[in-house]
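Pilot study result, target chain (107 residues):
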Amino acid sequence: MWSELAKDAGGIALFVLWLVLPLAYVVVLGRRYVRLAREAAHEAVWANDEIQAVLEDLQDDEGPDEGDPPTVPTARTEATWELPRVQPPERAGKHRLDRSEVPSCLK
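Predicted structure:
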């Protein structure tokens, strides 16, 4: 029986291909994703270095220079830090009970 199966070279080749192809596919995909992850990590490190450099430059700057344009004042001033109190309406919730203003067709 085994001798007859061994004579079938096409079947053996397909069997070996069936065993090897998924493994090769996983290896190729794995290498691709490792390369993409390496490139993304490299870009992230570069961006982090750039941000750290900018932050260090900002921290080294102690204050505005004479040549800097004036800053824009905010909308809040000393008088606007507290919002004015709103008085509750006299008839809150009672408007449904008073039907004097309701048209006669709805009474």
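One observation from the pilot: The chain has a mean pLDDT of 76. A full batch analysis is planned for the follow-on phase.
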